[in-house]
From TrEMBL:
Belongs to the shaker potassium channel beta subunit family. Residues 319-336 have a biased composition (Basic and acidic residues). It comes from the Bacteria. Keywords: NADP, Oxidoreductase. PANTHER family: HYPERKINETIC, ISOFORM M. Residues 314-336 are annotated as: Disordered. This is Aldo/keto reductase family protein. InterPro entries: AKR, K_chnl_volt-dep_bsu_KCNAB-rel, NAD(P)_OxRdtase_dom_sf, NADP_OxRdtase_dom. Signal peptide: none annotated.
Length: 336
């Protein structure tokens, strides 16, 4: 496992982050989830990402239990705030001072820790003044409940505004957590340049495009039983944008490229996002422990320009590049 600095800070995280979105507390049993966390630790992963909204707080509880007994100083625990939790009442979501303050306390309790290494604004809140949000984050840092602050799926303009306020309040934004893969490249034209300028890194989610880039979904054939595309608890909804025959046919063109590089298609997709120097880490999930060890092999892989060019040719116009799609990811209203 290799490690990279997160933004303009002295804080390092593992190139591969273990995330428990869509799995822990919902898709897989707790014993299996714990086994996946153990496999991540055994593979050298030290960074774990979750959020209070995952499985309505259950994912944080599962992760806290799985990491119980580990040396806290050897771990980087990341969580997020924004989405509706609990009974999902009128103040149970967003980035108000009230919700942030209550959420960090709940997250610490469920994660069984006194602090999180990185606390992230899961989306941008259009209904709360940014000054209120950033002041709440500043207070949490001063209280020692979070060591660093990041954002997730913020536009370049939102990152710039947040960075300015954070600097005025005596702390810094050091990361953004966007979707990024061969098929989803919307951060490249605006978010990445702004982040490089301001000292933020990307911690990217869905580097395998919900598993589509693993090559297991074949055009014109039913999805494998037990795969994300057959999951009725949320997985199928998330992956459906990639399930057209056009996309699946294009993805199959990556198979000989992966073989040339000596990688599986899944490893190739993870290694690809890590070639972007503004990416500090790629988040992987797992429903089986053996998936973790296989995907960790992407850490440290260097893809030459010829391989990168072949990937671009294979994917071509299938990749989404419109930077406006980032703004679309945050809800316009905070209605639960």
């Amino acid at each position: 496992m290799e490690f990279r600095y997160l933004g303009n800070s002295g804080f390092k995280i593992s190139e591969i982050t273990f995330g428990n979105w869509l799995t822990h507390g919902s898709q897989v049993e707790n014993d299996t989830a714990t086994a996946c966390v153990r496999a991540a630790l055994d593979a050298g992963i030290s960074t774990f990402d979750t959020a209070d909204v995952y499985a309505n707080t259950a994912a944080e509880t599962v992760l806290g239990n799985a990491l119980n007994g580990e040396r806290r100083e050897s771990l980087e625990i990341l969580t997020k705030v924004f989405g509706p939790t609990g009974p999902k009442g009128h103040n149970d979501l967003g980035l108000s001072r009230k919700h942030i303050t209550e959420s960090i306390n709940g997250s610490l309790r469920r994660l069984q820790t006194d602090y999180v290494d990185l606390y992230q604004a899961h989306r941008y809140d259009f209904e709360t003044p940014l000054e209120e949000t950033m002041q709440a984050f500043a207070d949490i840092v001063r209280q020692g409940k979070a060591l660093y602050i990041g954002v997730s799926e913020w536009t370049a303009e939102q990152i710039r505004n947040g960075h300015t306020l954070a600097k005025d309040l005596g702390f810094q934004l050091i990361s953004n957590q966007p979707q990024y893969s061969m098929l989803w490249r919307v951060i490249e034209s605006e978010v990445v340049p702004a982040s490089e300028e301001l000292g933020l890194s990307q911690i990217v989610w869905s580097p395998m495009a919900q598993g589509v880039l693993s090559g297991k979904y074949q055009p014109g054939k039913p999805a494998p039983e037990g795969s994300r595309a057959t999951d009725t608890k949320g997985g199928a909804q998330m992956i459906k944008r990639w399930m057209s025959n056009e996309v699946l046919t294009g993805v199959q063109k990556l198979k000989p490229i992966a073989e040339e590089a000596g990688l599986t298609m899944a490893q190739l997709s993870i290694a690809w996002v890590l070639q972007n120097q503004n990416v500090a880490s790629a988040i992987i999930g797992a429903s089986r422990p053996e998936q973790v060890a296989a995907n960790v092999a992407a850490s440290g892989v260097k893809l030459d320009q010829e391989i990168m060019d072949k990937i671009d040719t294979a994917i071509g116009s299938l990749a989404e590049r419109d930077p406006a799609r980032t703004k679309d990811s945050s809800p316009a209203t905070r209605e639960a």
